[in-house]
Amino acid sequence: MDYFNYKDGQLWAEDVAVADLAARFGTPLYIYSRATIERHWHAFNDALSNHPHLICYAIKANSNLAFLNLLARLGSGFDIVSQGELERVLAAGGDPAKVVFSGVAKTAVEMKRALEVGIRCFNVESLPELHRLNQVAGEMGVKAPISLRVNPDVDAKTHPYISTGLKENKFGISYQLAREAYRIANELPHIDIRGVDCHIGSQLTELSPFLDAADRMLVLLDQLAEDGISIHHLDLGGGLGVRYDDETPPEPMEYVTALLQKLKGREHLELCFEPGRAIAANAGIMVTQVEYIKDQDDHHFAIVDAGMNDLIRPSLYEAWMKIIPVEQKDSGKSQVYDVVGPVCETGDFLGKKRELNISQGDFLAVRSAGAYGFSMSSNYNTRCRPAEVMVDGSAAHLVRERERFEDLWRGEHLIK
Ligand code: LLP
């Protein structure tokens, strides 16, 4: 559930009319709802309230500082994949002791910084990474807390670009090698084994792949216990899907209830989740304005002011995202449109074959744009990235200014 609803034919974000925000801040514009972000985070945290746990929001989904700060104030942890994301967590007032660090290509510099600030855990994705971390920690005279990210080889049944838990994917250490990898880790002087980690993919709409992965992790945990290696936490990654159209992904509570059945007798094992999309996607919309209606033969285009540089999901994954009018009309007739952007690429579209009753100048909202929206935006075609606004009840806060042209070439130099 979210707080973007129609009242009298007008789209509202909490208690603010979206059309007013578009007029005030311009378009394209990302709008987030504080109440929705908090509600989604609590859905995970409350589901786990009777079990030791930590919710580590995957900040790649939406890394705006105001967004992170809201979660930090709720006591959230964070899943990061780069030093940049770590610096964002710190700048937003997040607690480094609640940070887990995923990613296949951590550099020595990133490791050093993460050790300096005292993160909770490195999710190590390969043996060479483990050896590098051991060395960096040794040079600093500390021990690095780790989980090994294990690739459980289960099919997440999602888009191939966002499926990560199959053996052909680049992520994690293969399930067959995991036990041996833990033995190696256990011998390293500057490594402190804390957990077991996996993440099998994103936008999962069924429980069974999560539960299959959990089963495999629990078998590994028992093998590790036989080897005298005790595990403090099990990190099952992120991946819970959201409703873009008519999907019916499980609620966090359903997921947790099914998992806790499997964890009987392991009441001290901390559970960690890394949700990104499930917290952020439906907490945000992107608003765009119709620049032109172009009718050609039997094709109708709604040419809007937001393009693939602002929101790349439809172009990159052929992701279907709902497009709705900001003001519903009583008159006029609807037409089937391809909603396309200004970027010079055929793949620049927000949606195809959408039935809409619109005219030039109207505002449209792309729903579920809070995750992997702004965070994947770029300056392609030398376009300024949009502004971001956080609505909180009847207040609207500009949480990121629209870029200006000078921002785009800052750091560039002419030669003589
Ligand atoms: N943990 C790890 C290690 C991850 O790689 C990811 C996402 C997450 C957690 C969070 O997954 P979520 O709960 O958001 O599904 N750009 C794509 C999604 C890429 C996901 C990458 N990893 C999209 O727009 O669909």
From TrEMBL:
Q: Which family does it belong to?
A: Belongs to the Orn/Lys/Arg decarboxylase class-II family. LysA subfamily.
Pathway the protein takes part in: Amino-acid biosynthesis; L-lysine biosynthesis via DAP pathway; L-lysine from DL-2,6-diaminopimelate: step 1/1
Question: From what superkingdom does this record's organism come?
Answer: Bacteria
Q: Which residues bind pyridoxal 5'-phosphate?
A: 239, 274-277, 372
The record's subunit annotation is: Homodimer.
What the entry lists under Pfam families is as follows: Orn_Arg_deC_N, Orn_DAP_Arg_deC
Tell me which UniProt keywords the record has, alphabetically.
Answer: Amino-acid biosynthesis, Decarboxylase, Lyase, Lysine biosynthesis, Pyridoxal phosphate
Q: Which reaction does it catalyse?
A: meso-2,6-diaminopimelate + H(+) = L-lysine + CO2
The UniProt annotation places substrate binding at: 277, 313, 317, 345, 372
Lyase listed as a keyword: yes
Q: What is this protein called?
A: Diaminopimelate decarboxylase
Start and end residues of each Orn/DAP/Arg decarboxylase 2 N-terminal domain? 35-281
- Active site, per annotation: 344
Q: Which PROSITE patterns match?
A: ODR_DC_2_1 (PS00878), ODR_DC_2_2 (PS00879)
